[in-house]
Amino acid sequence: MPEKTILIAAGGTGGHLYPALAIAEEIRREQPEIRIVFVGTRDRIESREVPRANFPFTAINIHAPRKSFSSLVSFPWKFTKAVLFCIRLMVREKPSAMLGAGAYLSVPVGLAAWAMHVPIALLEINSLPGSSNTFLARVASKLFLAYPESLASFPKRLSGSATVCGTPVRAGLGGMSASDDRQSKEAARTSFGLEASRTTILVFGGSLGAGPINDAMRTATRSVVEHGYNVLWQTGRSANVSALQQEFEGIANVRITEYIYDMEGAYRAADLVVCRAGASSLAELARLGKPAVLVPWAGAMANHQEHNARAFQQGGAAIVLTDAEVRNKLAETVLALLSNTDELRTMAQAMKQRDNPDASKVVATWLLNQR
Questions:
Q1: How far does the chain reach from its first CA to its final CA, in angstroms?
Q2: CB-based contacts of 40: which residues, under 8 Å, 6+ apart?
C-alpha cells in the first residue's frame, strides 16, 4: 500500500492540465512512493496525457451546464451523480489532500473532498480567477496563485493562507534555455524533419487549435520559408490538418502536425514562438526564455489573455497581435524579428526574467505535508 494518496482534479484544456502534471511530477521526484490519482473527463486532453505521464486516471461524467432547456433540466441530476461518484472515489482512495486546478470538473471532486474532510488546495494560474475556483474557495484550505491581483476575487478568510508562486512548469523543460547549444538545437530540428541549420519558428494554438493563428499561418508560411526559415506548426484538433498538410506538401522545411507530443524538442528547435497567451504557455516561455509573438484569445474571461500578453509586451519579452491583426500582420512581424538577432536576444532575456522556477515545489510541499 502507498504511504498516502493525493487526488488531483485537472483537465479540459492543456492550460489547466499541464501545471497540475508539473506538480504531480515534482511529488513523484520527491517521494516516489506517494500515489497520485488524476480525475478528469474521458473525452478531453487529460484522458490521453495523464496515462502518457504514467499516473492513474479516473474519468467522471461531467460537463458545464449548457444553455439549452434539456441541458438545464438534466444538469442537476448529472451533477449529483458526479458528486456521489467522487465521494465513492474518496472512500476508496482515502486521499490525504486534493488539488483543484481550475477546470469545471474540479467542482464535484472538490465538493466530495469537502464532504469527506479532505484538505483542498486550489491552483489559480490566471490573473482573473475562473468560476470553478471561486466557487470551491468557499470550502478550500489553501490557495496557490500565479498573480497577486487575483487574490481580491477570493474570500477574505483565505487571504492569510494564499501563496503567490507563479505557474508550475513541467521539469522536462527546466534544463533548457534560450542559449541551448547549437548541436542540441540542430538535433531537435532534424527530429521534426526540418533543416538543421535554419532559424525556426514554432507555432501553436493549444491542443484544440486557434483559428485566427491557423488562418494567419496559411498566409504567412510561404513567405517565411522563402526567407530561409523553418516552420514547425501545430494546428490543433479543430483544424483540418490533412488539408493543410496537402496544401503545403511541396514546400520544404515546413512541418505541420495536429499535436506535438515532444514539446520539449519543439521548444528547443525554436528561435521564436507564435502562440496564444494562456497562463501555462506564458510560464513555459518564461522558463525557457523564448521570445514570442502572442495572439491572446479574445474570448477569454474578462479578456485576461490580452491583459497577461500586454504585461509581457511591456516588459520587452513579446510582441502582441490581436485576433483581428494577426492575419495581415503575422508575416511581417515574424520576419522583422527573425532578421534582428539582437532584438531576439533582448526579448529572450526579458522573457527569462519572468520565470518562477520553484512554483511546482511550493505546491507539492504543501500537498505532501497534509496528513
A1: 16
A2: 9, 10, 11, 12, 17, 46, 47, 50, 57, 58, 59, 60, 103, 105
CATH 3.40.50.2000: which residues of the chain?
A: 5-167+357-368, 171-352
User: Beta-carbon neighbour count of residue 190 at 10 Å?
Assistant: 13
Name residues whose C-beta falls within 8 Å of residue 217's C-beta, 6 or more positions apart in sequence.
203, 231, 233, 274, 330
Digit-coded pLDDT (tens) for 283-328: 999 999 999 999 998 877 667 788 889 989 999 999 999 999 999 9
pLDDT tens digit sequence for 132-170 = 999 999 999 999 999 888 898 898 888 888 999 999 998
Domain 5-167+357-368 coded CATH 3.40.50.2000 = yes
Beta-carbon contacts of residue 54 (< 8 Å; ≥ 6 apart): none
Task: Tell how far CA 293 is from the center of its chain.
Answer: 17
| CB-based burial label for 77 (10 Å; 0-12, 13-18, 19+) | exposed
3-class DSSP assignment, residue 47: helix
Q: List, for residues 262-282, the tens digit of each pLDDT value.
A: 888 999 999 999 999 988 899
Q: What is the CATH number of domain 171-352?
A: 3.40.50.2000
- Reading phi first (left if > 0) and then psi (alpha if -120 to 50, else beta), residue 70 is in alpha
Q: Which of 32-46, 69-83, 265-279 has the lowest mean pLDDT?
A: 69-83
Backbone angles phi, psi at 266, to 5 degrees: -65, -45
